[in-house]
Design brief:
mainly alpha, Rossmann fold, 2 domains, two-stranded parallel sheet, 5 strands, 47% helix
Amino acid sequence: MFDLDDTLYSAECGMWLEIRARINKYMVEQLGVPEAEAPLQRERYFREYGTSLAGLRHDYPDIDTDEYLAYVHDVPYKRYLARDDALARMLNELTLAKSVFTNADRAHALNVLSALDVEKHFDVIVDVHMTNFVNKPRIGAFNVLFQALEAEPRECVLLDDQERNLEMARSLGMTTILVHSGVSADRVADFCVPDVVHADGVLRRLVSE
């Protein structure tokens, strides 16, 4: 199971800066949040609820989630992302069923996978609609994942850039891989790699075992 943003691609590409700016703009223009407060409120939502949308749904129960998701993801994907041959090769050679497990929506996931030219390698996308807006790291999101894949946690490997998501996954019995540049060891995850392509060796070893 692969997380999407900052896992299958690096947030350093700049796309997340634009998405983050659009979240702030939506909060100001559509919800009336003072411009100076929007970034702080967004950060608080991420810390407390896991995503900005989860926090907004809590504080603004009438929010149009489809409108919000379409607005914040209205970015030029191919300006930031390009075909990743190394990733495509790794996924092609990985003899395991592969899925995307994301707190974003399916449309965003498909746009990212298409820009990277790796969409054909994934069998299932478990997104925020499929989980009924229960997001990682909440256990309800993981339960939907296992149900969708018809798999037990012990059969699953999660690659993610967020420790809190991996902590929940590991507590449920999943094998966990932290994807994070500049980190060689981690107190939460079973394994740690600087980028997703470097997970190839770990995944091959897990398959052989």
